[in-house]
Amino acid sequence: MSQHIYEPERKLSVTASCDVLVAGGGIAGIAAAIAAARHGANVILMEREYALGGMATLGLVTIYLPLDDGEGNQVTFGIAEELLKLSIAHGAEANYPTAWLDGDDRAERIKNRYITQFNPHLFAIRAEKLLLDLGVTILYGTLAVSVHKRGGKITHVIAENKSGRSAIAVKSVIDCTGDADICHLAGAETAAHHGGNGLASWYYYFSHGKVNLKMFGLADVIPDENAVKDDTDYDNVMVEALDKNFRFSGFDGEELSRAVIEAHQKMFADIESARATDPEYVPVTISSIPLVRMSRRIVGAATQDIDTDRQHVADSIGMTGDWRKRGPVFEIEYGTLFGSKVKNLITAGRCISVTDALWDVTRVIPPCAVTGQAAGTAAAMISDFSDDFAGLDVAELQRNLENDGVILHNGG
């Protein structure tokens, strides 16, 4: 028999206000906050952990996937490329993209995609400094637990942290939580990924005088026969889920705990196995958050599918290639970023409205940065509470993005 208790109604202090509230400090959230701040918005970024970067840093998934189409053409620009360069400002851990940053040899660019591996700790700290220099307020250890709405719009986001429960007054909100948490709290229509998530727990280890990254599970979506092996140390074909019979949604609290525990135990067994033949093998750091890839997303004004490969999209806000194989290029639709039920809520990163088939493409670092930049730019254009994202002047948004270095269409 289920039991219930009733919490007493409480009066909350409004402790802060902002033009744009960014929920989630992963790559999408970082890009969104940068873009909004650069366009003059007063920005608060809320992050439940105590460092920025999400999966890329706290999850130790330190592969900055390609900014190109695999055929020698860069397709992703703007903040996505800026963050790649920032991630290796102190040197790449592996796969420095020489052909792209230090030369223009097309044959070399075809041979080696615009990809790199970065140090997660340096990247997180450098991203934090960049945001602080732009005047962004960062609230660490802060989780959105509810929203207050009026007239179909969010007026306040209810947050909890060590100070307790309080309200933040907002003009617009960008959901970069990765799991569409704000969308869910605000009553926006959402959809779950049908395939769920596999087990993984990446970690760094020390052996024979060197620190190495162990890509321990994750990419169990294997590229098709068109995949081409790059001349890099990164080979996604070799990375598979730790247990093909264990899947989890990514937005159930008890289920997430079970998944993390199971991944930890498998990782420990892997370390012990390595130490049996190499006594110097010791873990240096492990993923500190669950490695969730595709969980819950908004149902947007548009839902983009994999069949839009190399199609012209009139309302494009930027492009991405396919990290799994060479050839595809996707112009990302502005309509995938927002829904119809909550007028001043927009999404970025893993939360955007795409089919399951395209989700595996748009969930990774470059498209997360592309959609983050677009969402942040759009949110900065919402100057009044009467404005909404559906009514935004898309042509003006596109001009702003182009002025900031984004190329919107393939071949132009």
What is the straight-line distance between the termini? 62 Å
Radius of gyration: 21 Å
Q: SSE string, helix = H, strand = E?
A: EHEEHHHEHEEEEHEEEHEEEEEHHH
Residue windows where pLDDT falls under 50 for at least 5 positions? 220-229, 232-237
**Share of helical residues:** 25-40%
What is the CATH superfamily classification of the largest domain? FAD/NAD(P)-binding domain
* Arithmetic mean pLDDT: 93
Would you mind describing this structure in some detail?
The protein is α/β, with parallel strands linked by helices and 412 residues long. It folds into 2 domains: 14-195 and 294-403, FAD/NAD(P)-binding domain (3-Layer(bba) Sandwich); 203-286, no CATH class. It has helices at residues 27-38, 79-87, 98-101, 106-111, 120-133, 181-186, 253-277, 356-362, 365-381, 394-403; strands at residues 14-23, 43-47, 63-64, 116-117, 137-140, 143-150, 153-161, 164-175, 190-192, 203-207, 210-214, 282-286, 296-298, 316-321, 329-333, 345-347. The strands form 5 sheets. Strands 1, 2, 5, 6, 7, 8 and 16 form a 7-stranded mixed β-sheet that branches. Strands 11-10-12 form a 3-stranded antiparallel β-sheet, with helices on one face. Helix 1 (27-38) packs parallel to helix 9 (365-381) and helix 2 (79-87) crosses helix 9. It starts with 13 loop residues before the first strand and ends in a 9-residue tail after the last helix. Mean pLDDT is 93; it is low at 220-229 and 232-237.
